[in-house]
Each structure stands twice: as structure tokens, then as C-alpha cells.
Design a protein that fits this description.
Rossmann fold, 6-stranded mixed beta sheet, 3-stranded antiparallel beta sheet, 8 helices, 9 strands
């Protein structure tokens, strides 16, 4: 059984259709990236899978006992509010010092436990958010544009970390992102959304799809190899083992 799936999913906001007829499933160990232009429904899709937004039509099915780790697009904290990292990681569920130390070590910021959240750099802040998500030992990590505001090396470093976490925890990763050059190459499967699924498949399939090129232009294809993640299953040509079939909606 898939960890989470959607069938004929549609979502309306204020009488406006944000998503139409989405079919989706993700398996354990898979890295799937959702891309699309601004306003295309990417975050609405993630919120529906999380259960924050109720589908207007269709259904969502989650595996029994599914544990989800969520890294939000942004998190606003009052800079004047004293909030040490260790305290933040114990909200809403209290965590032991050992668990907090292990999580921070895992994401590469072992020395920030006593530091105030407001004083963290952008990269440190995102890694602390990831540490918080990992404390639940998730079956699936859901990331909503987690690298917004980071520079290119920071983005690539973050997604290398995500790949390491996937391998170690055997969790699935579902990432919504605008970092096309990095994220597409870091994925087993890419789904391009613009209110509906325009195209999906392995990164190289989506890169060459006319629907993707129409949304993002011809210049997106040359830089997709900035970071190519490793995978347990590869073909002889070095391509990741991912669905090669392209799904196209000509509506």
C-alpha cells in the first residue's frame, strides 16, 4: 500500500478551483518533487495531503499509523521572544535532551541547542525545522519550499542532507519547490502542476516535456545536473530508477 495517495482530487478556495482531478501516490523511500509556477496549486496540494485543507472532490488515503514530518515554507517567530532551539524542538511534544542532541547532530548543527531561534542564519533555521520534523521518526517528509531565501550552495547542501536522511530512515520525501535546477535532479519523480498535472515522470522526462517547457521556458534544461542524488537502484546508463512514462494532460 502507498504511504499516501489521492484519487481525482480537486480543491476549491473561495469558489475558485485551485486543483482539478489530481491522481497521486508515493511509496516508501521515494523522493518526489512538485514543481509549478506561482499560484499553480503546489502548496494547496500539500495542505490537502496533510489534512489542513478538505478536498472539494475526490479522496485522500493514508497508510494506517502514518507518521508525517513537515517542514513549512516559512515560520514567523517573534524576534523579541526568547526561544532557545532546544525549547522550540520540545514544542508541542516534550523531547529529551538526548533526542534533541541527536536530531541536531543529524542535520549538521550540533552546537545550536542553546542559541535563540532569532539569531540563527537562514540555513541553520531550516536545518532546525528539519530536525523538528525528524523527531517524529516520519514515514514521509513533506517539505514546502524549505530552501526559500538560501543561496545556491545552501540549497544544494540542504538537498544532499535530505537524500542522506532518506537513505538512513527509509522514509519517503515529498517536496514542493521552485528550485528547479537542484530539486528536479535530486528527485526520483517530478510532477509539474498548474492547477492540474501537466506532466510527470523521471526528471529528464519532465525536463523535455512540451508542457514543462511552456511553463518554464527552454533555458531550464541545461542546469538540471547541478546536484544529482544517488539512489539504491540505478540503470546501466546511470539514470535513477524512476517511472519513465510521461503523463500529459492536454486540457
Amino acid at each position: 500500500m502507498s504511504l499516501i495517495s489521492a484519487a481525482a482530487l480537486s480543491v476549491n478556495y473561495g469558489g475558485r478551483r485551485a486543483l482539478s482531478d489530481i491522481d497521486f501516490a508515493i511509496e516508501r523511500g521515494e523522493i518526489v518533487t512538485i514543481v509549478g509556477p506561482n499560484g499553480s496549486g503546489k502548496t494547496s496540494f500539500l495542505r490537502a495531503l496533510l489534512g489542513v485543507v478538505a478536498p472539494t472532490h475526490g479522496r485522500i488515503t493514508r497508510a494506517k499509523g502514518l507518521r508525517i514530518g513537515y517542514v513549512p515554507q516559512r515560520l514567523h517567530l517573534d524576534p523579541g521572544l526568547p526561544m532557545p532551539v532546544a525549547r522550540f524542538l520540545s514544542l508541542p511534544k516534550r523531547q529529551s535532551r538526548a533526542a534533541i542532541a541527536a536530531a541536531l547532530e543529524r542535520v549538521g548543527v550540533p552546537d545550536v541547542s542553546a542559541q535563540n531561534m532569532a539569531t540563527l542564519s537562514g540555513g541553520q533555521f531550516q536545518r532546525v525545522l528539519l530536525a523538528r520534523a525528524l523527531l517524529s521518526a516520519p514515514d514521509i517528509l513533506m517539505l514546502d519550499e524549505p530552501t526559500a531565501g538560501l543561496d545556491q550552495p545552501g540549497v544544494a547542501s540542504f538537498y544532499r542532507l535530505i537524500e542522506d536522511v532518506r537513505q538512513e530512515m527509509d522514509c519517503a520525501v515529498l517536496s514542493v519547490s521552485h528550485d528547479l535546477h537542484v530539486v528536479m535532479s535530486a528527485s526520483d519523480r517530478v510532477i509539474c502542476i498548474n492547477g492540474h498535472i501537466c506532466c510527470e515522470g523521471a526528471p529528464q522526462v519532465v525536463r523535455d516535456a512540451p508542457e514543462y517547457r511552456a511553463l518554464f521556458g527552454l533555458g531550464t534544461g541545461g542546469a538540471l545536473a547541478l546536484y544529482q542524488h544517488s539512489h539504491d537502484h540505478t540503470h546501466g546508463d546511470g539514470c535513477t530508477h524512476a517511472p519513465a512514462a510521461q503523463k500529459v494532460d492536454h486540457a
